[in-house]
């Protein structure tokens, strides 16, 4: 990791917004004095506060400061299937939460992430997640554990977790205002618990610098919502400010995948402040080039999470496993591969660009569900295998998708309306011939024609060199033709 930092310093000047944030000396007078100060109120920060209470620290000696005007960060919006275990996991599966169980989850998570995760950190995460899950259950969060088949060798759309924990959503959305994914249930439960235990939370109060005295971090300098600079003294400071998708300087400087994002589901407060502050006091960094995301990043669709970004027909179509080509009109991967894998292929394409192509027999909701065994972005997850309802998990074929874009959340648009709107807006391109489609997309028409002919032949023989499942191979032949231009859609940067 040191090597990475040194190399970057030699070859590229660090842009201003990516530079370490230097610490400041202690003030003459402190505004607050606490035992534990947590910067950032996502699930990481909230769990840290709960951990501090568990360690016996009184709630009124713990403080959280948060840059946004709400508690929960991105976590409040996340779907949040996570590898997890714990007491109820054992009960649910009748198996001990032992080294074998942990190892299975470890292997599958590594596989999903193309072996790019820090193994020691992942192991710790799996061990500790069990405590977190147990704690949330003690708070009354009902959690569904799902055991899924391990992914086959050519990783396809199976969700490759040995077990996932999902908070069960309740029908009454008003209980979780502003939440969309399941994780909002975790953050709401944690927020309530911390309030009951007198933990102070200051909203719209970004940390600006760490305060350092004789080489030791002794507090934080922050700015309140009224614009006042305050100094908070703390025996322990925990930085839990999430990733840096909204810091373009960091995205560019650390290169790799984040620079290629077409859209991000992250809140705009995720600007890498904690990473830069900790670098300012000498911390090392790792995995900064890594990313979490999927295909389907349409330019101009930004934060708003599921309501504004995912729930667009253009995103649904971009992520549907029809034919996908790069800017040279070449196919480059199994479009049905797990999104973590598609992302890696997509990021390697020129300009990070992809075009997903359809004919007129496969763009409506029912057609997508039938032909591609998936669903559209009215619902949060396009996994064709499982769907969660209030009580159980069933294959999607047997269960209609839950509509998550609820009128109370301020944005509700059925897929077919969104399809019409996205076509009018030019986010979905329509053409009567392949030549016309190529011209509108800026692709070489002869090359695109050839790629489509070859793909149609693959659909007929049902033998795909990229390994797409035969039942998902549908030829592109009935005009009009449709296409969506997209890049990466990111939801986090795991480095730090
Ligand atoms: C739609 C969606 C679906 C997802 N689904 C999954 C999933 O199924 N499984 C999974 O594992 N992950 C999922 N993720 C990713 C997951 O949400 C994040 O990795 C996780 O929430 C990060 O938690 P965190 O506590 O580290 O950061 P965050 O939740 O982002 O919290 C960081 C907080 O720090 C605050 N902050 C930033 N700078 C400062 C500062 N200077 N001072 C004070 N506060 C600051 C931010 O405002 C924010 O509230 C999903 C994300 C999205 C958007």
Notes on the protein architecture:
The structure is a single chain. Helices cover 31% and strands 18% of the residues. With 496 residues, the chain is of the alpha+beta class. It folds into 3 domains: 20-80 and 181-247 and 265-290, FAD/NAD(P)-binding domain; 82-165, no CATH class; 292-492, Succinate dehydrogenase/fumarate reductase flavoprotein, catalytic domain (Flavocytochrome C3, Chain A, domain 1), CATH 3.90.700. A 6-stranded mixed beta sheet has the order 6-2-1-9-8-7. Strands 10, 11, 12, 13, 16 and 17 form a 6-stranded mixed beta sheet that branches. A 3-stranded antiparallel beta sheet has the order 3-5-4. A hairpin with a 5-residue loop joins strand 8 and strand 9 (229-239). Helix 2 (43-54) packs parallel to helix 6, helix 4 (99-112) crosses helix 5 and helix 14 (434-441) crosses helix 15. It is globular and about 70 Å long. Residues 1-9, 148-180, 301-308 and 379-411 have low confidence and may be disordered. The chain binds flavin-adenine dinucleotide (FAD). Flavin-adenine dinucleotide is lined by residues 39-45, 65-68, 73-75, 77-82, 181, 206-207, 240-242, 265, 269-270, 273, 305-306, 491-492.
